[in-house]
Amino acid sequence: METKPSKKAVIILSGGLDSTTCMGIAQAEGYELYPITFDYGQRHKVELENARQVAEHYGVSARHKVISLGFLKEFGGSALTDESLEIPDMTKPKEQGEEESEVPITYVPGRNLLFLSIATSYAEVTGAEAVYIGVNALDYSGYPDCRPEFIRKVEEVMALATRVGVEGVPMRIETPLSEWTKAEIIREGMRLNVPYHLTTSCYNGEKEACGVCDSCRLRLKGFAEAGEKDPIPYR
Fold it and tell me: Regarding the domain delimited by 8-93+103-226, which CATH topology (the fold level of the hierarchy) does it fall under?
Protein backbone atom coordinates (compact mmCIF):
# COMPACT_ATOMS: atom_id res chain seq x y z
CA MET A 1 0.00 0.00 0.00
CA GLU A 2 1.42 3.36 -1.04
CA THR A 3 1.99 5.83 1.79
CA LYS A 4 0.41 9.21 1.22
CA PRO A 5 3.01 12.00 1.53
CA SER A 6 2.61 14.30 4.52
CA LYS A 7 1.43 17.83 3.95
CA LYS A 8 3.89 20.59 4.86
CA ALA A 9 3.63 24.16 6.05
CA VAL A 10 6.17 26.95 6.51
CA ILE A 11 5.63 28.89 9.73
CA ILE A 12 6.96 32.42 10.07
CA LEU A 13 8.24 32.04 13.63
CA SER A 14 9.33 35.12 15.56
CA GLY A 15 9.52 33.44 18.96
CA GLY A 16 6.51 35.46 20.09
CA LEU A 17 3.11 34.40 21.35
CA ASP A 18 1.20 34.67 18.09
CA SER A 19 3.66 32.90 15.79
CA THR A 20 4.16 30.11 18.34
CA THR A 21 0.39 29.65 18.50
CA CYS A 22 0.49 29.28 14.72
CA MET A 23 3.02 26.46 15.19
CA GLY A 24 0.60 24.68 17.51
CA ILE A 25 -2.35 25.19 15.18
CA ALA A 26 -0.46 24.00 12.09
CA GLN A 27 0.73 20.90 13.96
CA ALA A 28 -2.83 20.17 15.14
CA GLU A 29 -4.00 20.48 11.53
CA GLY A 30 -1.60 17.72 10.53
CA TYR A 31 1.20 19.68 8.89
CA GLU A 32 4.89 18.92 8.98
CA LEU A 33 6.38 22.12 10.37
CA TYR A 34 9.06 24.14 8.56
CA PRO A 35 9.73 27.22 10.71
CA ILE A 36 11.55 30.26 9.38
CA THR A 37 12.84 33.11 11.56
CA PHE A 38 14.23 36.49 10.53
CA ASP A 39 17.09 38.40 12.12
CA TYR A 40 16.46 41.93 10.91
CA GLY A 41 18.48 43.78 13.54
CA GLN A 42 15.52 44.04 15.89
CA ARG A 43 16.31 45.46 19.32
CA HIS A 44 14.38 42.53 20.84
CA LYS A 45 16.96 40.10 19.43
CA VAL A 46 16.27 37.79 22.38
CA GLU A 47 13.31 36.51 20.37
CA LEU A 48 15.72 34.66 18.05
CA GLU A 49 16.71 32.39 20.94
CA ASN A 50 13.05 31.98 21.85
CA ALA A 51 12.31 30.88 18.28
CA ARG A 52 15.15 28.36 18.46
CA GLN A 53 13.71 26.91 21.68
CA VAL A 54 10.21 26.74 20.23
CA ALA A 55 11.50 24.89 17.15
CA GLU A 56 13.34 22.48 19.46
CA HIS A 57 10.18 21.96 21.53
CA TYR A 58 8.30 20.89 18.39
CA GLY A 59 11.17 18.65 17.30
CA VAL A 60 11.89 20.53 14.07
CA SER A 61 15.25 22.19 14.78
CA ALA A 62 16.78 20.60 11.67
CA ARG A 63 14.18 22.34 9.47
CA HIS A 64 14.37 25.69 11.24
CA LYS A 65 15.89 28.41 9.06
CA VAL A 66 17.19 31.69 10.47
CA ILE A 67 17.55 34.32 7.74
CA SER A 68 19.53 37.55 8.12
CA LEU A 69 17.85 40.75 6.92
CA GLY A 70 20.26 43.17 8.56
CA PHE A 71 19.60 45.85 5.96
CA LEU A 72 16.28 46.60 7.69
CA LYS A 73 18.28 47.90 10.65
CA GLU A 74 20.41 49.97 8.28
CA PHE A 75 17.27 51.46 6.75
CA GLY A 76 15.85 52.27 10.21
CA GLY A 77 12.52 54.08 10.32
CA SER A 78 11.18 51.99 13.20
CA ALA A 79 11.64 51.98 16.95
CA LEU A 80 12.29 48.25 16.66
CA THR A 81 15.39 48.75 14.47
CA ASP A 82 16.56 52.26 15.42
CA GLU A 83 17.55 52.57 19.06
CA SER A 84 17.52 56.35 18.86
CA LEU A 85 13.72 56.05 18.67
CA GLU A 86 11.96 55.34 21.94
CA ILE A 87 9.62 52.40 22.45
CA PRO A 88 6.37 53.98 23.69
CA ASP A 89 5.46 53.35 27.34
CA MET A 90 1.74 52.62 27.13
CA THR A 91 1.23 53.20 30.86
CA LYS A 92 2.15 56.88 30.60
CA PRO A 93 -0.57 59.43 29.79
CA LYS A 94 -0.07 61.28 26.52
CA GLU A 95 1.17 64.82 26.84
CA GLN A 96 -1.17 67.64 25.95
CA GLY A 97 -1.21 68.22 22.21
CA GLU A 98 0.57 64.94 21.48
CA GLU A 99 -0.98 63.26 18.48
CA GLU A 100 -1.21 59.52 18.05
CA SER A 101 -0.14 58.33 14.60
CA GLU A 102 -2.41 55.90 12.80
CA VAL A 103 0.62 53.68 12.14
CA PRO A 104 2.68 52.92 15.30
CA ILE A 105 6.37 53.86 15.52
CA THR A 106 7.05 50.12 16.02
CA TYR A 107 5.94 49.39 12.44
CA VAL A 108 8.93 48.12 10.40
CA PRO A 109 8.63 49.27 6.77
CA GLY A 110 8.15 46.35 4.39
CA ARG A 111 8.79 43.69 7.04
CA ASN A 112 5.88 41.32 6.44
CA LEU A 113 6.14 41.79 2.67
CA LEU A 114 9.75 40.59 2.85
CA PHE A 115 8.94 37.82 5.33
CA LEU A 116 6.19 36.40 3.14
CA SER A 117 8.29 36.62 -0.01
CA ILE A 118 11.18 34.67 1.52
CA ALA A 119 8.85 32.21 3.25
CA THR A 120 7.24 31.58 -0.15
CA SER A 121 10.64 30.65 -1.57
CA TYR A 122 11.28 28.24 1.32
CA ALA A 123 7.80 26.76 0.91
CA GLU A 124 8.22 26.14 -2.81
CA VAL A 125 11.57 24.43 -2.35
CA THR A 126 10.30 22.20 0.47
CA GLY A 127 7.01 21.39 -1.24
CA ALA A 128 4.92 23.14 1.40
CA GLU A 129 1.35 23.98 0.47
CA ALA A 130 0.83 26.72 3.06
CA VAL A 131 2.62 29.57 4.78
CA TYR A 132 1.41 30.46 8.29
CA ILE A 133 1.81 33.97 9.65
CA GLY A 134 0.49 35.22 12.99
CA VAL A 135 -0.94 38.55 11.86
CA ASN A 136 -3.86 39.92 13.83
CA ALA A 137 -6.16 42.58 12.41
CA LEU A 138 -7.83 43.32 15.76
CA ASP A 139 -4.89 43.96 18.09
CA TYR A 140 -2.54 45.31 15.41
CA SER A 141 -4.92 47.23 13.16
CA GLY A 142 -2.42 50.09 12.94
CA TYR A 143 0.07 47.95 11.00
CA PRO A 144 -0.74 48.13 7.27
CA ASP A 145 0.98 44.79 6.63
CA CYS A 146 -1.29 42.91 9.03
CA ARG A 147 -4.55 43.69 7.25
CA PRO A 148 -6.53 40.90 5.53
CA GLU A 149 -6.53 42.81 2.22
CA PHE A 150 -2.71 42.91 2.27
CA ILE A 151 -2.53 39.15 2.86
CA ARG A 152 -4.94 38.38 0.03
CA LYS A 153 -3.01 40.56 -2.44
CA VAL A 154 0.28 38.85 -1.52
CA GLU A 155 -1.42 35.48 -2.00
CA GLU A 156 -2.47 36.58 -5.50
CA VAL A 157 1.14 37.56 -6.30
CA MET A 158 2.39 34.20 -4.96
CA ALA A 159 0.12 32.42 -7.43
CA LEU A 160 1.59 34.45 -10.30
CA ALA A 161 5.23 34.38 -9.20
CA THR A 162 5.79 30.71 -8.34
CA ARG A 163 6.10 27.57 -10.39
CA VAL A 164 3.46 25.77 -8.36
CA GLY A 165 1.16 28.73 -8.85
CA VAL A 166 1.40 28.81 -12.64
CA GLU A 167 1.04 25.02 -12.70
CA GLY A 168 -2.33 25.42 -11.00
CA VAL A 169 -1.55 24.45 -7.39
CA PRO A 170 -0.90 27.80 -5.67
CA MET A 171 0.26 28.03 -2.06
CA ARG A 172 -2.02 29.51 0.57
CA ILE A 173 -1.26 32.05 3.27
CA GLU A 174 -2.87 30.87 6.48
CA THR A 175 -3.75 33.55 9.06
CA PRO A 176 -5.66 31.61 11.73
CA LEU A 177 -5.37 34.39 14.32
CA SER A 178 -6.48 37.24 12.10
CA GLU A 179 -9.89 37.90 13.63
CA TRP A 180 -9.26 36.59 17.15
CA THR A 181 -8.78 38.65 20.27
CA LYS A 182 -5.58 38.04 22.22
CA ALA A 183 -7.63 36.17 24.84
CA GLU A 184 -9.07 33.86 22.17
CA ILE A 185 -5.56 33.23 20.81
CA ILE A 186 -4.28 32.31 24.28
CA ARG A 187 -7.25 30.04 25.05
CA GLU A 188 -6.64 28.12 21.84
CA GLY A 189 -2.91 27.95 22.57
CA MET A 190 -3.54 26.61 26.06
CA ARG A 191 -5.85 23.96 24.60
CA LEU A 192 -3.07 22.91 22.23
CA ASN A 193 -0.37 23.02 24.94
CA VAL A 194 1.55 25.74 23.12
CA PRO A 195 4.80 26.43 25.08
CA TYR A 196 4.14 30.05 26.02
CA HIS A 197 6.89 29.84 28.65
CA LEU A 198 9.38 29.75 25.76
CA THR A 199 8.01 32.87 24.07
CA THR A 200 8.60 36.60 24.39
CA SER A 201 6.53 39.59 23.30
CA CYS A 202 8.47 42.53 24.72
CA TYR A 203 9.73 45.15 22.26
CA ASN A 204 12.53 46.23 24.61
CA GLY A 205 14.38 42.93 24.25
CA GLU A 206 15.42 42.30 27.84
CA LYS A 207 15.45 38.95 29.61
CA GLU A 208 12.52 40.11 31.73
CA ALA A 209 9.66 41.68 29.79
CA CYS A 210 9.06 45.37 30.47
CA GLY A 211 5.30 45.09 30.89
CA VAL A 212 4.72 48.62 29.59
CA CYS A 213 5.28 48.50 25.81
CA ASP A 214 2.27 48.00 23.53
CA SER A 215 3.10 44.35 22.87
CA CYS A 216 3.52 43.51 26.57
CA ARG A 217 0.29 45.30 27.48
CA LEU A 218 -1.67 43.41 24.83
CA ARG A 219 -0.18 40.12 26.00
CA LEU A 220 -0.90 40.76 29.68
CA LYS A 221 -4.44 41.90 28.89
CA GLY A 222 -4.97 38.76 26.82
CA PHE A 223 -3.82 36.42 29.59
CA ALA A 224 -5.99 38.25 32.12
CA GLU A 225 -9.08 38.06 29.90
CA ALA A 226 -8.39 34.39 29.17
CA GLY A 227 -8.23 33.70 32.92
CA GLU A 228 -4.67 32.38 32.62
CA LYS A 229 -1.34 33.35 34.18
CA ASP A 230 1.41 34.53 31.85
CA PRO A 231 4.35 32.14 32.47
CA ILE A 232 7.14 34.56 31.50
CA PRO A 233 8.92 36.91 33.96
CA TYR A 234 8.29 40.65 34.00
CA ARG A 235 10.30 43.47 35.51
Answer: Rossmann fold (3.40.50)
